[in-house]
Amino acid sequence: MPELRLLACFAHPDDEAFPVGGVLAQNVEEGRRVAL
User: Fold this and answer.
1) Alpha-carbon torsion 24, 28, 33, 36, what sign?
2) Global pTM?
3) Which has the closest alpha carbon to 32: 8, 5, 1?
4) SS in 3 state form for 1-36?
5) Residue 15 half-sphere exposure, CB side, CA atoms within 13 Å?
6) Residue 7: partners with Cβ closer than 8 Å, 6 or more residues away
7) Cα separation of 12 and 21, whole Å?
């Protein structure tokens, strides 16, 4: 199975904190590469 990577793009520097911060953190804990 190919490596899963996530790329998240947001309009403002703190926009990732509230709507999807938990999802991004969970993916990092599971060993996935996450880039903002």
Assistant:
1) positive
2) 0.61
3) 5
4) CCCCEEECCCCCCCCCCCCCHHHHHHHHHCCCEEEC
5) 7
6) 35
7) 14
Q: How far apart are CA 21 and CA 18, in angstroms?
A: 6
Place of tokens 């926009």: 15
The overall longest dimension of the chain from CA atoms, in Å, is 33
For 2-36, the pLDDT digits (tens) are 688 888 888 888 777 777 888 889 989 998 888 87
For residues 27 and 6, the answer to whether their CB atoms sit within 8 Å is yes
**Which amino acid belongs to residue 6?**
L
Q: Please report, as a single letter, which amino acid is at residue 35.
A: A
